[in-house]
Amino acid sequence: MMDALRETNLTDAVMDLVDVEAATDALHCRGVTKHFSASLDKKDRPPAKNRLHGLWQRIVPPRRRKLAVDNVSLKLKRGEIFGVVGHNGSGKSTLIRMISTLLTPDAGTINVFGYDPQRDPYKVQRLINRVSVDAAFFKKLSANENLLYAARLYCVEDKYALNRAEEILKLLGLEEGRLTDSLQELSRGMQQKVAVARALLTSPVLLLLDEPTTGLDPKSKRDVQDFILELQRIHDATVLLTSHDMDEVERLCGRIALMNEGRFVARGTAEELKKRVRERRAERAASGETADADKRSNGNGEVTMEDVFIELTGSEWLSAEEDVD
Predict the structure, then answer these.
(1) In this structure, what are the phi and psi dihedrals at residue 33, rounded to the nearest 5 degrees?
(2) Over residues 92-117, mean pLDDT
């Protein structure tokens, strides 16, 4: 399948079509901020003035303005894989949606290879593709029909798209006979494999991966990771990845940002972040202080990425299964 990847140069064709300079940053976010409105919890609601007012509050709960992404700045060079780690609700998916033209920032600017997602959405959409944890499909259509629809949006020939999609899905372990089944007949894991194939069949120059391997078995997860690394190496693609899998982030990403309550609280390579945690532990040990994270340490000085997250965000790490909305 990697030979098929090498035989095509869709990435360069897309770059030429959209007129992108090679030296331009792949992604540049400056002070990006986004608010949403959310219903107030019952304990936080003002007391009802009367019975009618109380009934109205039940029907239309009072709302508050919630900060989802708070003054985030980020710059990615072409060919870089950058990881963002955080719990559900930390702002990861909101950031991805703003970059991919689906949401408008309240403040700040975003540039994808020099193009603004709001001013030039169609040019940006030609350069990117996205995999989300809850991929959207035409559920009554087959996997093949969904993939063909996506390919035509990017002007990819039907024959090439089907062959490429079959190769990717075969690598991920989806039986060839299931390609003609409607998406509603496939399991969540199988649907996620189709979503990965849909994003990768166009060889995007900026790949936005929002927890892309959720629902995949360990082998399929590893195969997706290998494909991402190969796509980056051969086509110089840039990848922005959010994930709950700390091993995945450490393996794929050159730099990592820890996101908590809408902000990047720390960033650097995996080794730089681990070094920062080791230094903090050494300082506490020298001063006679002991933190909960130190008590859980295995005593050999080894620092994991879970340790990094807990230490630098002040928040307990939750797995993808535990971290639910």
Answers:
(1) -135, 140
(2) 93
